[in-house]
Specification:
Layout (H helix, E strand, L loop, with lengths): L1 H6 L10 E6 L4 E7 L6 E5 L3 H12 L5 H12 L12 E5 L7 H11 L4 E5 L7 H5 L11 H11 L1 E5 L6 H12 L6 H14 L4 E8 L9 H17 L3 E8 L7 E2 L1 H13 L4 H18 L6 H14 L4 H13 L3 E4 L4 E5 L1 H11 L13 E4 L6 E2 L4 E6 L5 H10 L1 E4 L15 E4 L1
Length: 433
């Protein structure tokens, strides 16, 4: 690590920031804040919020260069156990936000290629890969290093929750960033994402950079492009190959929003009963796996087999997945209908907020799944007044507010003639360094 940073041409004054060491006595990472000028040292544990505040302040003020971001990623990764580094290992993460299941389907597609996938995640808002899978009865994500290695040997694909065993400092800092509205600071997002790749021994780090006002690496294409290049540059400092897929996250890539709803999408894909909209998105996820590890797009049956093998290796069953999906569908007892006619458009940021408002808070490693929506009409399709547009799952008490919030997130553009062009799910741009 030191050689990589030195080769990046970092100056003496730039090195006056952080020096990292491991305190075996306490089994946590400590940070020596060393001033070269006066040689004074101050010790702080990574769980100290004052240290988190300093990193956040430096990131917001753009005082973290690529080397500093790499150092932060290494520190967060070193706060817990680490898996073996495998040359053929790859994964695809995302910058967060609703409307895509790429972090669930792409890893299975990568595994179908024969590459190792070791995935470490934090809960999403409203749904992330790991918290979606934890809705499956019996599925275990709190594995130690030996157990995770055993799963990899068994099926080539493991999906873990960041926290007690792996990257605990990253999990703590991520939660704190959410508390202080620092989740959308690009330098911190890059460090967090790459810390997980270091902890899992991943060699090729794919990243879906979702471009939207709620995006963590940019609200517009130019910002997203600049931060994607930075992600790839920092990854290279850490010995990781970074590949970014920029997508338009203002339009949903598939119709299922929510933890249980994501399981419904997976259930439909595994059963071969998916709609054309979801099929298009799954095909894109499979193509992203090609870009990461080479070869041709894997057959859908091979992706399904890889996904099923992981579910079973981590304690779940395909029956339990389908059962949960059926329960979720049965709970979709309400619909929001079109107030006007025209070409329908959804505000994903508002739909995300609506789901988060309607459901209960997460507690510890228990992730609530009391609300979600399914879009019934594809964006930019022509709809008539009174036509069902969104199916809703929520409690009786949450329904009045959720109904209003979901209705407000639906917009209607004037239809001159026929339907508009349906949005695709292809990447806006692919970036490598």
């Amino acid at each position: 690590m030191a050689q990589k940073l030195a080769s990046a041409g970092r100056t003496r004054s730039q090195l006056e920031g952080f020096y990292f060491a491991r305190c075996e006595q306490h089994d946590v990472v400590v940070v020596i804040l060393r001033s070269i000028a006066n040689r004074k040292e101050a010790w702080m544990y990574t769980t100290d919020r004052a240290l988190f505040d300093r990193w956040i302040a430096d990131a917001r003020a753009d005082r973290l260069d690529d080397c500093a971001i790499a150092e932060l990623a290494e520190t967060l990764a070193s706060s817990g156990q680490r898996l073996k580094r495998r040359a053929s290992s790859a994964d695809l993460a995302s910058t967060g936000g609703p409307g895509s299941i790429s972090t669930l389907w792409s890893p299975a597609a990568i595994a179908a290629h024969g590459s190792t996938v070791a995935k470490l995640g934090v809960p999403g808002r409203p749904a992330g890969g790991v918290d979606v899978l934890m809705q499956i009865d019996g599925y275990r994500t709190a594995l130690n290093a030996a157990e995770a290695e055993s799963v990899i040997e068994l099926c080539g694909y493991v999906h873990l929750l960041a926290g007690c065993e792996f990257a605990p400092a990253d999990a703590q800092m991520f939660a704190y960033r959410q508390e202080v509205n620092a989740q959308h600071v690009p330098a911190l997002a890059i460090a967090s994402l790459l810390s997980k790749k270091l902890a899992t021994g991943t060699s090729i780090a794919g990243l879906e950079v979702r471009i939207a006002p709620h995006g963590n690496l940019g609200s517009n294409r130019e910002e997203a492009r600049r931060n994607a290049r930075r992600f790839c540059s920092v990854a290279r400092l850490l010995g990781i190959t970074g590949v970014c897929f920029l997508t338009d996250a203002t339009a949903p890539q598939q119709p299922y929003l929510g933890r249980g709803e994501a399981l419904v999408a997976l259930s439909r894909l595994l059963a071969g009963t998916e709609c054309a909209w979801l099929a298009d998105h799954a095909r894109q996820c499979e193509l992203w796996s090609n870009a990461l590890v080479g070869g041709t797009r894997p057959r859908r049956i091979d992706v399904s087999r890889a996904f099923t093998a992981n579910i079973e290796a981590q304690g779940g069953t395909l029956k339990a997945l389908h059962s949960r999906a059926e329960t979720v569908i049965a709970a979709h007892s309400r619909e929001v209908t079109a107030r006007n006619e025209g070409l329908v458009r959804y505000d994903l940021g508002e739909l995300r907020r609506a789901i988060l408002t309607a459901r209960k808070s997460d507690k510890g490693q228990t992730f609530d799944d009391s609300a979600g929506v399914i879009m019934l009409a594809r964006p930019n399709s022509k709809v008539s007044q009174g036509e069902p547009l969104i199916s809703v799952r929520c409690s009786d008490t949450a329904w009045p507010i959720l109904n209003n919030d979901v209705s407000a997130a639906i917009h209607y553009d004037r239809a001159e003639s026929g339907a508009g062009e349906l949005p695709g799910t292809a990447s806006v741009e692919v970036i490598r360094v």
